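#structure-requests
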Amino acid sequence: VQLQASGGGLVQAGGSLRLSCAASGSIVSINTMSWYRHPPGNQRELVAAITSLGYSNYADSVKGRFTISRDNTKNTVYLQMSSLKPDDTAVYYCNADGRSSEGGSIYYMNWWGQGTLVTVSS
């Protein structure tokens, strides 16, 4: 299973960006899909997560500004980011957990996508 993230870029403070992450491969089911970020000089942190039923949670630092959503028919998760701040500058990673099939067996796995850089200028 592969996760392909896209949508990062350079934006001015106060602007918006939308990140997408599509899962592909031998997917049986996907449970929670999440976005993490790794700011320069800091540790990776959870930004937002959403379950297969649509329940979501957010880091306090992004509540009211970011919205996570998903399209289960496309195995895709989105992160709509608004009112961006320089502190939101980071490499953003998508993550998913679920089940995949390989060689006739089903495995419960956790997958990471490649990062996408978001830079917010002041």
